[in-house]
Amino acid sequence: MVDAATKLFSSHGFAAVSMDDVAAAAGITKPLLYNYFGSKEGLFAACAERAGAELRTQLHDLLEGSELAPDERLWAGIGAVFEFVEHHRLAWELLYPPVGRPAGPVGEEADHARHAMEELLVSLFADTATSAGVAGEALAHVGPLARAFTAATIAMATDWVSRSSEPRELAALRLMNLAWMGFGDLLEGRMWLPGEGEVR
Questions:
Q1: Closest CA to 155 of 120, 117, 124, 193
Q2: Strand pairing partners for 197?
Q3: Confidence (pTM)
Q4: Do 106 and 179 belong to one domain?
Q5: In angstroms, how far apart are the furthest CA atoms of the chain?
Q6: Which residue, 185, 180, 178, is CA-closest to 200?
Q7: For residue 66, is pLDDT > 70?
Q8: Which residues contact 186 (CB under 8 A, 6 or more apart)?
Q9: For residues 122 and 115, what is the distance between their CA atoms, to the nearest angstrom?
Q10: What total number of domains does the chain contain?
Q11: Residues 79 and 166 in one domain
């Protein structure tokens, strides 16, 4: 059912797909579909949850099991997010609209995905801080910074989706530099580039 719904939503968009369409594609009755998911929004949330789980697994593997330096690990994670957004544009637009939080099951899945991303970033930021010699009370900043970066990631990905004539790599690089170099270095002409680190 989720496979059939995902294909239909991806091909035709959320509004254009009916529960009748999904039931026919899955070879089941519409009442059975409602019995499992409750509504079209609930069905879409299940599709988004599975796609989001794939992203979370990929990010976990990148951020937890990689031998890359912290900056390259963060870059790989950002790249994975933007690649996901490109391939699951409809899901992203419904989960994270430009204004407001979606209601119902879709909003709940959006919250779940955001919290999972925050947990992964807390781990990465803590590892980065520890390797740089940060300890004690200073590590208390890790959680708030991870939450702030998650919000920035969602906002910049949503912005890119709304005007995606530019390559996703450019949007990802902009976010990476916001996180790694900060506004001050960017405005002074210094930036971070893949494989090169900080350059002027």
A1: 117
A2: 193
A3: 0.73
A4: yes
A5: 62
A6: 185
A7: no
A8: 177, 178
A9: 10
A10: 2
A11: yes
- Is residue 43 in some structural domain? no
Domain range for 102 is 54-199
Q: What is the number of alpha carbons within 13 Å of residue 4 lying toward its C-beta?
A: 15
Q: Taking residues 82-110, report their average pLDDT.
A: 80
- Helix segments in the chain, DSSP class H: 2-12, 19-26, 30-37, 40-64, 70-87, 89-95, 104-131, 142-162, 168-180, 182-187
CATH value at residue 5 = 1.10.10.60
Residue 148 located in a structural domain:
yes
User: 48 near 109, Cβ under 8 Å?
Assistant: yes
Let me know whether 27 and 118 are in one domain. no
Q: Residue 18: pLDDT band by 50, 70, 90 thresholds?
A: very high
Following CA atoms 65, 70, 73, 78 in sequence, which dihedral angle do they give, to the nearest 10 degrees? 140
